[in-house]
Amino acid sequence: MRRAYAVEPPYSRDMGLWTEQVVPRLTDVALGNDQIGRLRTAASAGLHGRVLELGFGSGLNLGHLPREVTAVDVVEPSEVAWARSEARRRSAGVPVQRIGLDGARLEAANASYDATLATFTLCTIPDVAAALAEVRRVLRPGGAFHFLEHGLAPDPGVVRWQQRLDPLQQRLAAGCHLDRDVPALVRAAGLEIVEVRQEYLPGPRISRPWTYAYLGRAVRPA
């Protein structure tokens, strides 16, 4: 007999705890290594002035920001990740302010940022098109969107595995998609890509559905 639940079933509550409590901690550890740190430095190069970061997480980008950055406003939905960023925020050397929880609806005026940054974030935003439209809106004309993301691979065999694994990935990794075409999404938002490096991160071939990376910069046309 199927049991009827007046509230959400136990497995749903368990997945909620996993997503809210465990995933932010795992992400902090998994994406905090030196190899990813070098990519964070490259993604942050050229940032200046007032910067908006989408998906701030536990603040892993703060140690890679150039001196030309004068303030960082951030969007971060996870309370656990925000709490884990406290020590990094205290030692950042620039003011860091949390301005919202949802990248698709930014609490910021038009053309109010010199640059924006997203690292391993666009994969998880439910309405990624709306979030990138918001990035374009809040960037000053000529301002740059810097990104370091994983997504759709160029090899058909890897793509097939990305598509097979994507439903499970979303469930286990807080909505993370494996097969988003990041450059196409950025261009569709009206941002002009001026440079992008695409490659698999080092690791065994079996990891390739997760490790095809995009490192690039796009600008809002003047």
UniProtKB/TrEMBL annotation:
Q: What range does the record give for the signal peptide?
A: none
> Which InterPro entries is this protein grouped with?
Methyltransf_11 (IPR013216), SAM-dependent_MTases_sf (IPR029063), Thiol_S-MT (IPR052356)
Keyword Methyltransferase in the entry? The reply is yes
Keyword Transferase in the entry? The reply is yes
Task: Tell me the superkingdom of the source.
Answer: Bacteria
Q: Which CDD domains match?
A: AdoMet_MTases (cd02440)
What are the residue boundaries of the Methyltransferase type domain, all occurrences included?
A: 52-146
Single GO molecular-function term? methyltransferase activity
**Which keywords fit this entry according to its UniProt record?**
Methyltransferase, Transferase
Q: Which Gene3D superfamilies does the record associate with it?
A: Vaccinia Virus protein VP39 (3.40.50.150)
Q: Output the GO biological process annotations, alphabetical, semicolon-separated.
A: methylation
Q: Which PANTHER family match?
A: METHYLTRANSFERASE LIKE 7A, METHYLTRANSFERASE LIKE 7B
Q: What is this protein called?
A: Methyltransferase domain-containing protein
Output the lineage of the source organism.
Bacteria, Bacillati, Actinomycetota, Actinomycetes, Propionibacteriales
